[in-house]
């Protein structure tokens, strides 16, 4: 890190989840009606999955939730605590204590709302070879309310931030909170960044997504998420990722002085940076099969790496290269975890 940053310049809102991660056979996935690389919300039939992982497989507990993951990675690379502030809702239980401890260790300044009648959310991370499938039981994360952001101390944190990041996943929880943060960012002329997060967000939560999109300065997504958005919008079925990216940046925007940017990842293929009518490609260093431990959290890590440079006012190409660096590091570790000191070089 170059120079000391002001504390609290980056605010993130999302669903704090405790990841329960284990390697499982394919029939385990199939037994719950899941496919490889799924990212779904748990239904009643999925509820036994969490206990089964703990009882029958070598399950690990990891601090999870997409935005919290990204902020942890950003903090790891920045090496200075409390640059990032996180808001989300947890229960009053042991899982919440674990999340608090993990956030603190990572240097994230977490300000959880606490639900006294609902347990902390969990996410089953099912690893099959190099694939990972997610089944999230939001539980307490679903209980987040805008009241929490209106508390004077929390409102001050939101007002004083210089950058804002929210996941599409949070659209399933509390759109009014997202709109409030987006309006603050717009009023203060500060960047508001968002993630498409998963195909089901575009498929089932398009209305709140389209409401917040005019505020979005930078939109992140992977190819599956971008295609789901395009399909739901009725864009041409043969549109490639570049065309989808151009259409994303051309969607209506409240602050036209700051044109929208789309950053689309496609696994080991190049990352696309789409601005106006230009598309730039950034190569991704391919890993050998034996180096890939688990792809869980790679997308979150990419955003975390990006944010670590973005809050330092680095150029977009440096931000993206750091995103790729972080994603590569995370893929070589179990879950969204890191090891050692970061050694990213601009």
Automatic annotation (TrEMBL):
Its cofactor is Mg(2+). Pathway: Purine metabolism; AMP biosynthesis via salvage pathway; AMP from adenosine: step 1/1. This is Adenosine kinase. Its EC number is 2.7.1.20. GO terms for biological process: AMP salvage; purine nucleobase metabolic process; purine ribonucleoside salvage. Binds 3 Mg(2+) ions per subunit. Monomer. It comes from the Eukaryota. The gene is LOC111597307. Keywords: ATP-binding, Kinase, Magnesium, Nucleotide-binding, Nucleus, Purine salvage, Transferase. CDD domains: adenosine_kinase. PROSITE patterns: PFKB_KINASES_2. GO terms for molecular function: adenosine kinase activity; ATP binding. It catalyses: adenosine + ATP = AMP + ADP + H(+). InterPro entries: Adenokinase, Carboh/pur_kinase_PfkB_CS, PfkB_dom, Ribokinase-like. The active site is at 300 (proton acceptor). GO terms for cellular component: cytosol; nucleus. It comes from Drosophila hydei (Fruit fly). Pfam families: PfkB. The lineage of its organism: Eukaryota, Metazoa, Ecdysozoa, Arthropoda, Hexapoda. Residues 32-339 form the Carbohydrate kinase PfkB domain.
């Amino acid at each position: 890190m170059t120079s000391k940053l002001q504390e609290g310049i980056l605010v993130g809102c999302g669903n704090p989840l405790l990841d329960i991660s284990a390697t499982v056979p394919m029939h385990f996935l199939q037994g719950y009606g899941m496919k490889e690389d799924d990212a779904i919300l748990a239904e009643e039939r999925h509820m036994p999955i969490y206990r089964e992982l703990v009882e029958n497989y070598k399950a690990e507990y990891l601090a999870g939730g997409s935005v919290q993951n990204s902020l942890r990675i950003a903090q790891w690379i920045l090496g200075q605590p409390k640059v990032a502030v996180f808001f989300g809702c947890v229960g009053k239980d042991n899982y919440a204590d674990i999340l608090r401890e993990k956030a603190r260790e990572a240097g994230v300044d977490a300000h959880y709302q606490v639900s006294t009648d609902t347990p902390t959310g969990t996410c089953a991370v099912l690893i099959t070879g190099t694939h990972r499938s997610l089944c999230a039981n939001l539980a307490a994360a679903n209980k987040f309310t805008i009241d929490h952001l209106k508390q004077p101390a929390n409102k001050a944190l939101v007002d004083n931030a210089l950058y804002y990041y929210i996941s599409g996943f949070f659209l399933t929880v509390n759109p009014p909170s997202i709109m409030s943060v987006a309006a603050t960012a717009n009023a203060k002329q500060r960047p508001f960044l968002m993630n498409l997060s998963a195909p089901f967000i575009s498929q089932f939560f398009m209305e709140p997504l389209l409401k917040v999109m005019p505020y979005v300065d930078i939109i992140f997504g992977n190819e599956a998420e971008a295609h789901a958005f395009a399909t739901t919008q009725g864009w041409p079925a043969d549109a490639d990722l570049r065309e989808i990216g151009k259409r994303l940046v051309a969607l209506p925007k409240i602050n036209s002085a700051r044109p929208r940017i789309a950053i689309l990842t496609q696994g080991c293929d190049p990352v696309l940076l789409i601005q106006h009518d230009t598309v730039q490609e950034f190569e991704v260093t391919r890993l050998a099969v034996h180096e890939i431990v688990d792809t869980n959290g790679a997308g979150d890590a990419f955003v975390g790496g990006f944010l670590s440079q973005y809050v330092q006012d680095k150029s977009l190409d440096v931000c993206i290269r750091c995103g790729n660096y972080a994603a590569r590091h995370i893929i070589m570790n179990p879950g969204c975890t890191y090891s050692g000191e970061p050694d990213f070089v601009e």
